[in-house]
Amino acid sequence: MNETTAELAKQPIGYWTGLAHEAIIRHINAAHARFGNTQRHWMALNMLSRNDGRITRIGLGDLVRPFVTPTIGDRESVDQVIEDLIDRRWISVSSDGLLHLTEQGRAGRARTMVDIKRVRAEIHAGVTDEEYARTLGVLRRMIANVGGDPSLPG
Fold first, then answer.
1. 114-135 pLDDT per residue, tens
2. Orientation angle between helical segments 103-123 and 13-33, nearest 10 degrees
3. Is the pLDDT of residue 23 over 90?
4. pTM for this one?
5. In sequence order, what are the residues at sequence separation of 6 or more whose Cβ sits closer than 8 angstroms to the Cβ of residue 102?
6. Distances in Å between the alpha carbon of 57 and those of 37, 54, 62, 76?
7. Which of 16, 95, 101, 117 lies at a 20 to 30 A Cα distance from 86?
8. How far is CA 26 from CA 21, 65, 73, 118, 139, in A?
9. What whole-number distance in Å separates Cα of residue 76 and Cα of residue 148?
10. Is 125 exposed, middle or buried (0-12, 13-18, 19+ CB in 10 A)?
11. Other C-beta atoms within 10 Å of 32: how many?
12. Per UniProt, which keywords does this protein have (predicted)?
């Protein structure tokens, strides 16, 4: 990786962002698979932990769905993931339809969180916080330039 700034400046952004997305998601999914999960499972558990006892299946699906890209999976599969977590008893549904993390769900989320930190460190190896923040800043400007929403996620 000894290319000049001029050489790198000619590279197509769509190619590199797509390649990065695919490689990173593949790496993350491999880590989740060790626990029988996908990234969608993690997203649902993580979102529910922030809204435990205050959200329904529909509400949780609505929170998770915007983060699901084709590489992560089909957006409609989010409902199946929530059902899977209920079947595995990681999530319970109270009589009023609200979702709750069970003890099993909290334990599974805690195990996954340890692994997520390891995976994040692998992905960020050799990249300073300043470089990472600068890269996100550039990507957010490009997103805004083409009419996308550069806001930070919820």
1. 888 999 999 999 999 999 999 9
2. 140
3. yes
4. 0.77
5. 89, 90, 91, 92
6. 18, 10, 9, 13
7. 117
8. 8, 19, 11, 15, 21
9. 22
10. exposed
11. 18
12. DNA-binding
Complete domains list, the chain, with CATH: 11-145 (1.10.10.10)
Q: What is the structure's pLDDT at 75?
A: 66
Q: How confident is the model at residue 154 (pLDDT cuts 50, 70, 90)?
A: low
Give the end-to-end CA distance of the chain in Å, rounded to a whole number: 35
**Cα 64 from Cα 75, distance rounded (Å):** 9
Joined together, the tokens standing for residue 61 give 């699906």
